[in-house]
Design a protein that fits this description.
Glutathione S-transferase Yfyf (Class Pi), Chain A, domain 2, 216 residues, single chain, alpha+beta, Glutaredoxin, four-stranded mixed β-sheet
Length: 216
């Protein structure tokens, strides 16, 4: 099998999800940083757009096959490398894991997207505090909804006691929420499963601060 390559940015929550999956499954991969701010945003280069026309991260490259989008990547890895599965075999648990991923993917993360916040800052002349306030307005209710679902589904992790894709989505989301000054301690189930996950080696290796391109 060809070596896996991951084009990603240390701070990107979507990139963080894929790093968790790769480390969880014990897969070797080449880490290729794409800085979303420097040089006008390296994701906008012609070379990178050939891999990902959407010009965002992450993108997984496997031989001559390039695959963007974190959920697509996780499902692809699951089919190729079924060891240490991230998607439960039980139909109901599988559905719940997907639901939790989608709450993050469509109901929370878009409001903190760098393209969105930068556009508002330029168009509205917002300060960072005003940007944070706008993100909080939308992200906090999303986290509240996530907490409500987790109250019934969570065990040690988001869906029962086994690590699933839901944990790979939730833990990066909490990291990102704190960047926007959101107090995550108001969500006891979320912070409990985060604490459990961050004790695992795969989650430690995937953490933004553990990446070669990390910067404060």
């Amino acid at each position: 099998m060809s070596k896996l390559k991951l084009y990603n940015y240390f701070r990107s929550s979507a990139s963080y999800r894929v790093r968790i999956a790769l480390h969880w499954k014990g897969l070797e991969f080449e880490y290729l940083p794409v800085h979303l701010v420097k040089n006008g945003g390296e994701q906008r280069s012609d070379e990178y757009r050939k891999l990902n026309p959407m010009a965002h991260v992450p993108t997984l490259v496997h031989g001559d096959y390039a695959l963007p989008e974190s959920m697509a990547i996780l499902l692809y890895l699951e089919r190729l490398y079924p060891q240490k599965p991230l998607f439960p075999k039980d139909e109901k648990a599988y559905g719940r894991a997907i639901q939790l991923c989608e709450i993050v993917n469509s109901g929370i993360q878009p409001y903190q997207n760098l393209k969105v916040t930068n556009d508002f800052e330029k168009a509205m002349s917002w300060s960072k505090d005003e940007t944070h306030a706008w993100v909080q307005k939308w992200v906090v209710p999303g986290l509240q909804n996530l907490e409500t679902v987790l109250e019934k589904s969570a065990g040690l992790h988001a869906v029962g006691d086994d690590v699933t894709a839901a944990d790979a989505f939730i833990i990066p989301q909490l990291f990102s929420a704190r960047r926007f000054k959101i107090d995550t301690t108001q969500f006891p189930v979320l912070t409990r499963i985060e604490k459990n996950a961050l004790q695992l080696e795969a989650f430690k290796k995937a953490h933004p601060e553990a990446q070669t391109d990390y910067e404060k």
